[in-house]
Amino acid sequence: MSSGQFTGAADGFGALRQLARRERPLERCEMCSLGLRPDHPHLMELAQRKLLCTCDACAILFSGPGVKFKRVPRRVRSFPDFNLSAAEWNGLMVPINMVFFFKSSLENRVIALYPSPAGATESLLLLESWNDIVARNPILDEMESDVEGLLVNRLGYSRGYSAAEYYLLPIDECYKLVGLIRMHWKGLSGGAEVWQKLGEFFTSLKARSVDVRVGVPVEVKEVCGVEEQSHA
Predict the structure, then answer these.
(1) pLDDT tens, position by position, for the chain (232 residues)?
(2) Looking at the 3D structure of the chain, how many domains does it have?
(3) What's phi and psi for 166, nearest 5 deg?
(4) Domain assignment present for 15
(5) Are residue 101 and residue 118 in the same domain, yes or no?
(6) Is position 231 within any domain?
(7) CB 73 within 8 Å of CB 144
(8) Do residues 95 and 153 both lie within one domain?
(9) Are 114 and 203 found together in one domain?
(10) What is the pTM for the complete model shown?
(11) Dihedral sign of CA atoms 131, 135, 137, 140 in order
């Protein structure tokens, strides 16, 4: 290789290194255009059922009673003793073993959506079915309309290698799951990549969640200045 060719190759590698070092475009608040950190909050636009990326100041300013936006919460709760029978699950008529539910304040009903390669797809949900589930799991009365969802994952359970998972979580996590499946699904079975991504998603979700008992009421008492939980 001549010196000219070597110089050209070196310049090419230098350009590649500069390209690799370039930062990803900074995500900006959809209200004020301020640069956002990776774990920024979201607002839900109720009429369009649309998530907006915002800074902390705008999330506070544009959310609250009487406005068209609601702030999406951050907490993630898991329910290891969630009570859902096989008959109740079959009665929901969800075509896959994963679904999330949320209360729509504008439509005054509970909506059931399941992720698919085409995006979020609505499944018909009878009010009586939901009321029966809430009666056996009264913690669902705490689910905040529009911005929290109940995510049910029965993929491993249906194959016999893990328990069913139930989470009460921010609605943006539900749509993140939908986007993950839509982006990585290949062919008829989804392909190895999408199943790996699903595993990573639920591993992360479990690590961030707090286990909550749904079958036994919990009474919080203060003993010697320290909160102590006792089962009623």
Answers:
(1) 554 544 444 455 455 555 445 556 789 999 999 999 988 999 999 988 899 999 999 999 988 777 789 999 999 999 999 999 888 888 888 888 999 999 999 999 999 999 988 889 888 777 788 888 999 999 999 999 999 999 999 988 777 778 899 999 999 999 999 999 999 998 888 889 999 999 999 999 999 999 998 865 444 333 333 333 433 3
(2) 2
(3) -135, 125
(4) no
(5) yes
(6) no
(7) yes
(8) yes
(9) yes
(10) 0.79
(11) positive
CA distance 36 to 58: 11
Question: 50: domain range?
Answer: 30-72
Structural domain contains residue 219: no
Q: Is 72 helix (H, G, I), strand (E, B) or coil?
A: coil
Q: Note the Cα 134 to chain centre separation in Å.
A: 20
Phi then psi for residue 160, to 5 deg, are 80, 15
Is 57:35 a contact under the CB 8 Å cutoff?
no
Domain check: are 49 and 101 in the same one?
no
Q: Would you give the DSSP letter of residue 116?
A: E
% helix, strand, coil for the chain, step of 5: 35, 30, 35
96 close to 181: Cβ distance less than 8 angstroms = no
